[in-house]
Amino acid sequence: MKPEAEQDEVRRLLSDRLFDLAPVMMVALDAEFRIVEANAAFARLFGEWEGKRCFELMKGRQSQCEQCQVSLAFADGKARLCDELLTVARDTISQFIVRVAPLGQPGGGGGPYLLWMASKVNEASILQRENDILFEGVPCYVTVLDRDLEVIRANRRMRETFGKAPGKKCYEVYKRRDRPCRKCPALLVFEDGQEHTAEQTGVTANGEAAHYIVTASPLSREGGSPNGQVNFVIEIATDVTHLRTLEHEKIEAERMAAVGQTVAGLAHGIKNILMGVEGGIYVMESGMRKGQIDRVDRGVQMLKRNVEKISSLVKNLLSFSKGRPPHVTVVDPNAPAREVLDLYSGMARQAGVVLEGVLTEGLAPAALDAEGIHACLTNLVSNAVDACLASEKKDCKVVLTTSEADGELVYEVADNGCGMDYEVKKKIFTTFFTTKGAGGTGLGLLTSRKIVQEHGGKILVESDPGKGTRVRIVLPRDRLPVVTAIGAAVNEGQKEGVSRGETQ
Amino acid sequence: MSDRPKAQNGPAKILIVDDERDIVEYLTMALEDAGFKAAGLAGTEGALEWIAAERPDLVLLDVMMPGHTGLSLYRAMREGEATKRIPVVIISGYARKDDFSKMGLDELESGRLPPPDGYLEKPITVPTLLATLRRLLERDETRSGTG
Predict the structure, then answer these.
(1) pTM of the full predicted structure?
(2) Does the N-terminal peptide bond of residue A180 adopt cis geometry, omega within 30 degrees of 0?
(3) A385/A391 Cα distance (integer angstroms)
(4) Would you state the pLDDT for residue A244?
(5) What CATH number labels B13-124?
(6) Mean pLDDT computed over B79-100
(7) I want to staple B94 with a disulfide (CB 3.0 to 4.6 A). Which of A356, A360, A427, B99 is the partner?
(8) Cβ within 8 Å of residue B66, ≥6 positions away
(9) Which of A283, A390, A439 is opposite residue B26, by nearest beta carbon?
(10) Residue A304: closest CA among chain B residues belongs to which residue?
C-alpha cells in the first residue's frame, strides 16, 4: 500500500473507531443542549441518551444549569475546562473533569455542534486536591520540615506572614534566629516520634511579634522510613497574638482599676484624718483667740491623735504593700489563739461583748507563722467585736474556736453581731473597703487573706445580715509552709521566705 | 448678733452624728462658736429617738460608720413621720455621689432612698460648713414662711 493510502486508511479507522475507543466520555451537543451523538464510554455510564438533553440526563434537571459552560462555549466559540458533579445513577453523584469545545472549522468560529468530553476524577486525586486546599487555606501557619529543620513546604498564610520560607530553616523564618530554639517541638518529634506542642513568640516579616501555639507531628511520606525513623515533621501553628493582646489589656485594665480603688480608699482614710487635723487646728486656734487654755489643750490632743492615725495608716499600707517574709516555726496551733483571747478579753468586756474561746486541746504542733496567724485572728476578733457593737442586740458574743478535721487545722471566729449583706460581703476582700468609717483602714481582711494564702490555706466567710458572721481559716496540714526559722524542729536552716504557701 | 442663725424660735439646732469623736467635738464647737445650738452623737445608738424627740433643724450625718448604721439611720429618718422632713447633710470622705456604689451605698445611688439635702466632703472647713447650713436653713424658713 502506498504511504498516502496507508495514511488515509489510518485516518478512516481513527475517525470511525476513535470516538468509541477513547477512555473518556464524549458527546456531541446541539445548541438546544440535545445529545446528538455519544460514545460507548458515555452510554456505559448514562445508558439511553437519544433525544435527551444534557442537563436532564446528567443532572436530573428540568432546565439549563446556572453556570452552563456549554452555552458560554456556544456563545464565544471558545473551549472550556471545568469541574462538574454528575448524577451517574439514580443517587450516585461523581466528580468529573469536563472539557467543552465548539465543533467548528479551525478559525471559522463556532458551529452548530459542540463536543463535550468528561473523565471521572479518581479518589486519590480528589483527596490530593482537598489536601492542597486544606493546606493552603487553613487559618494556621503550616510548614513541613525535614530532619535539618529546613522548611520544604509552607502554606499561604505562613508565607504571607513570615515571608518566603521554603529552603530556609524554620527558626530563621519564624524567629529570625541563627540556631534552633530551646525546646524545639519539631526536634522532639524527630527524637521520639510523638506529637509535641509549644507556645512560641516569633517575628513576622513586618517585624511585629507573633504569638502562636505550635503542634509538631510526625509526617510519614512514601510509606515512611524503613527503620521507623521520622523523616518529616508537619508543624501547625495557631496565631494567638490577638488573644494575648486582649489578655494583656485585660490585666492592665484590672491593674488600673485596682490602683484606682486603692487610691480612692486611701483618699477616704486620709480625708477623715485631715478632718481631725482641721478640727484640732480650729479648736486650738479658737482656744488661743479666746484665751481658753483648756481648749488649746483639747486641740493639741486632737492633733496628736490624728498624727498617730496617719502614721498607723502609713504603717499598715507599707506592711500590706511590701508584706513581710513569713517566720515559720513549729508551734502549738492554740498558742496564737490563746494570745488573741487574752489581748481582747478586756476590750470586749468594756464594749459589753462576751468573748469566748473554745480551743481543742491536744492539737499536734504545726509549722505556722505564729505572728501572722496572730495578726489574722486579731483582725477577725476585732471585726467581730465591731460587728457586735454595730448590732442593736444586747447579748452579743464572739467565739474563737480551734479544731482539726480531715488533716485540716481550722480557726473559727463567729459572732452574732450585725452580719453583712451581699453588697458588703462581696467587697470585704477589696483593698481599703471599710464599713467602719474613720475606724477602719480597709486592709485587715485583705492582709489576713494574704497570710492565710501563704500558709496554703483559705478564708471562708458566711454571714447573715442581722444574725451574725462566721469566718473560718482552713489550713490543710499537707500544704503548710516549710519551717524557715532558726532553732525550729524541722528543716532547720532553710532559706528564709521559702514557703510552699507562697505559690498559692 | 444680728446675723445669728435662727430657726423659727431661737438659734437653729444642729445634730452631728459621726463615729469619730474628734470630728463630733470639732463640729459641735465650730457650730456653737457660730451661734448655732449644736449637739453631737459619736454613733447612731439612740439617735433616731433623740431626733424624733428634739426635732433638730438639721442633721449632719456620716454615712460610713460601723455596720452601715449611718445609712440605716438615714433610711429610718426618711421613713419616720416625725423625722422625714428634717434636712440631712451627709458628711463623708466619700461625699461625692459617684463614690457611693463603691462603698455599698447603692440605695442612695440608685434613688431607692430620697437624696439627702446636701453633701459635704471631708475634710470640711468651717466657712463651707456654715455656708451650706445657712443656705439650707434659709431655704426651709422661706418654705415654711410661704407655705
Answers:
(1) 0.46
(2) no
(3) 10
(4) 84
(5) 3.40.50.2300
(6) 78
(7) B99
(8) A386, A387, A389, A390, A435, A436, A437, A439, A440, B19
(9) A283
(10) B22
By the 10 Å C-beta count (0-12 exposed, 13-18 middle, 19+ buried), B106 is classed as middle
- Complex ipTM over 0.90: no
pLDDT at A494: 35
Whether residue B26 has pLDDT greater than 90: yes
Q: For residue A169, which amino acid is it?
A: K
Phi, psi at residue A115, to the nearest 5°? -95, 125
User: B146 to chain A, minimum CA–CA distance in Å?
Assistant: 37
Q: In this complex, do B94 and A261 lie within 8 Å of one another by their Cβ atoms?
A: no
Task: Please name each of the domains of chain A with its CATH number.
Answer: 3-121 (3.30.450.20), 128-239 (3.30.450.20), 245-322 (no CATH), 329-503 (3.30.565.10)
> What phi and psi, each to the nearest 5 degrees, are found at residue A4?
-65, -40
Question: What is the model's pLDDT at position A488?
Answer: 39
**Smallest CA–CA distance from A432 into chain B, residue:** B103
Window 72-91 of B: residues touching A by CB (8 A cutoff) are none
Residue-level pLDDT at B28: 95
Please answer yes or no on whether A423 and B64 come within 8 Å at the CB atom: no
B22 vs A: CB within 8 A: yes
| Residue A138 phi, psi (nearest 5) | -65, 140
Please tell me the predicted confidence (pLDDT) of residue A499.
35
pLDDT average per 10 residues of sequence, chain A (504 residues): 80 82 89 91 90 90 88 87 83 85 68 88 80 89 92 92 89 90 88 89 90 89 59 92 85 71 74 89 94 94 89 74 73 93 83 90 91 88 85 87 93 90 66 55 73 87 88 90 56 35 32
A349/A162 Cα distance (integer angstroms): 74
| Residue A482 DSSP label | P
Nearest chain B alpha carbon to A382: B66
Side-chain half-sphere of B127: how many Cα atoms within 13 Å? Answer: 0
Is A387's CB within 8 Å of B104's CB? no
The helix (H) or strand (E) run that includes residue A148 is none
Q: Are B67 and A390 in contact (CB under 8 A)?
A: yes
Chain B residues with CB inside 8 Å of A427's CB? 104
Enumerate the residues of chain A whose CB falls inside 8 A of the CB of residue B122. 271-272, 274-275
Nearest in space to A367 (alpha carbons), one of A502, A504, A475, A481: A481
Sign of the CA dihedral with A40 first, then A44, A50, and A54 last: negative
Whole-number pLDDT of residue A161:
92
Q: Determine whether the interchain pair B26/A275 forms a contact, defined as Cβ–Cβ distance below 8 Å.
A: yes
What single letter denotes the amino acid at residue A479?
R
A277 Cβ contact partners less than 8 Å away, ≥ 6 residues apart: A302, A303, A306, A307, B123
Which chain A positions have a beta carbon within 8 Å of B26's beta carbon?
275-276, 278-280, 282-283, 302
Query: Of the candidates A261, A278, A418, which has its C-beta nearest B125's C-beta?
Result: A278
**H helix intervals, chain B:** 21-33, 47-54, 69-79, 106-109, 126-146
- Contact yes or no for A277 and B123 at CB 8 A: yes
